[in-house]
Description:
Blueprint: E1 3-7, E2 11-18, E3 32-38, H1 40-50, E4 54-58, E5 60-62, H2 67-76, E6 85-87, E7 91-100, E8 106-113, H3 119-123, E9 132-136, H4 140-153, E10 159-163, E11 179-182, H5 184-189, H6 195-203, E12 209-213, E13 219-223, E14 226-230, H7 244-257, H8 263-275
Parallel strand pairs: 1-4, 1-9, 2-7, 5-6, 9-10, 10-11, 11-12
Antiparallel strand pairs: 2-3, 7-8, 12-13, 13-14
Helix pairs in contact: 1-7, 7-8
Amino acid sequence: MARILAIGIATLDIINSVDGYPAEDSEVRARSQRICRGGNATNTLVVLSQLGHRGSWGGVLVDEPDARHIRSDLAHYAIDTAHVRLLGHGKVPTSYISHNLRNGSRSIVHYRDLPEFGYHDFAAIDLGGYDWLHFEGRNIDDTARMMQRAREHWPTLPISLEIEKERDGLDQLLPLADVILASRALAETRGFADGKQFLHYLRKLTAADLYCGWGSLGAHALIGDQALFSPAQTPAMVIDTLGAGDTFNAAIIDGYLDRREDILSHACTLASLKCGRLGLDLGLELGI
């Protein structure tokens, strides 16, 4: 069992399941609705918990009623929240999600009105008891300072970095990570048509191990100069793709911690398992 600290956000997800994504300026009836916790960093920790690890989250919450869903779910998966900055006023970040029952896809409108977890919050954490440190690629200037601090004071602590969206200054984070988990969305934003090309582009910017999932087209990795590929493992029925990328990322981290030789295919297997289920309860034995 490894101890993992993840720095990022948690959200309240309001998910409406619809029979086909609605056209603009139309009205449809949701077949069902569920409200749950979301957010990339905490999703990754929840999957890692089910894989036998212990997670801690560094982020920001508000003392308001909607936060109870987040706190309750994190407690269920034994995610430690001792490093969370709790504010007295504000609004929990909220994602309004349309889940298409025809193909399992999701479309998201996100509202955020909270400060980010900052450098001074991070600097108060003793990283000595952790086996892995994971960051969302956001709040770039502070995140760069956090990663530099970890490098200086805990040089043997592995660092992974998720780069999902284009953000000003994002590339300054790349040399500070050991493992980079890149998204298809970011690759396409930068003009790349497949993960392999994108990872060779990133290799010019960092010596980190590089991974990029490409949905049903599989996933690529670049370890040193060795390019790897794993085909996607499509479930019998695609039910819910929300959180599949976070599951993929968690499986990569788990692969390093467990010294697996099949890290990329392991990640594709777990991402497929998630797509065949509603939510992030993967039916794995909880590591708590």
